Amino acid sequence: MTQNSFSPSMSATKETILKNAFAAAVAVADPQVIVPQYLAKIFPKGQEPKGRCLVVGAGKASASMASALESYAQAHWPQTQIKGVVLTRYGHNSPTKHIKIIEAGHPVPDQAGMDGAKEILALTNQLEQGNVLIALVSGGGSSLLTLPQEGISIDDMRQTTEALLRSGAPIEEMNVVRKHLSAILGGNLARVAIARGARVEALLISDVTGDSPADIASGPCAADYSTYLDALNILQKYDLDGSAVPASVRNHLKQGLAGEKPETLKDVDLVNAKVTNHVIATAYKSLEAAAAFVRTHGYEPIILGDTITGEAQEVGVEQATLVRDHLNKAIDKPLALISGGECTVTIPAGVKGRGGRCSEYLLSLFAASSDLPNISALAADTDGIDGSEKNAGAWFDGDIRKSSQAAGLAPEKFLLAHDCYGFFAEFGALVETGPTLTNVNDFRIILLDK
Fold it and tell me: Which CATH number does 31-281 carry?
């Protein structure tokens, strides 16, 4: 999906406008475009890495970032020796020659991810004084860089991740726990490089609200603000401090609280260290790109922000109310309400569900706006995969609403079963892009016609 693929036309269908607005949001975060731009800033002519340059990374966009870096280095750093390992989600590969790409499990970690993380840590331990470590980090890195601390197995990490996912804990809280179980996250990767006398330059594509380097992929090269106590409190908050989480995990956190395990990297550890985190793409920039696109179709965009979180179904209801508020104002021109931020879906025990937070939000909006026939909407994950299936999200317009009514399919029934995928599949209303090789969180747009 590239921004050059669409040619705006005032006669375009709602489906086309919605999908091309999403395409614009994704295109502005394309690693092939933004990585070279930032490498030129970080390493101006005459200051490129000399000798050995180690490249590591993890995330849904990291393989594409590695590919872009290699192409740039070949053209601008011909004397630099590039070597490295990057982890990405299955199906998110990108061609490289010198940087090894390992595909692994996400959001639940697997053995491939742990083996790759071990390889990254081993390479980082080979750095020498004056070497450069470039870390390519994007959303999804928390699961991929799972490498647990001593005494915690990959199965323990998998069970903990699954318990947190089912609890409905927001990603920020999930990552506080994972940081304190990992040998790489929470600044531990940078800690190793600092000890070896290396310079660290981390390029980050943000999929988190606030765009803090400590939160993007759980901040492998950033100072961490959270503590072992925070991690334990989160387990208690979601009733996971019993058998739902393995004893090895609970014991490790308690030992950390008692001072028997080192804390994650803190600001004091970075004094005099050569460590810089560069946030090169954000959700808000993507929302702005979508806003610029819909203006060409006569819509006045209103960006609601990139920090909207909460239960997906509740957010859908809230935004339906917001739509009514705007329509009651007798709008002068069509509006486009655009937002980002990661919602959550809490799955009850015994319910499998199909879909993800984007399509669940959209189905909730659809159900809560049954009296508004002239609105259209789309919600999709910018990485191209929304939850359990292979779609990025879903969309609807007035025709989809008429079709659902004619078929007698009640969205409430599908919401109760958490089968938003099944509902939109019935009407060919899934958004299917395949992996986009970037990730700047979720994208939502509602078109309000006069």
Answer: 3.40.50.10180
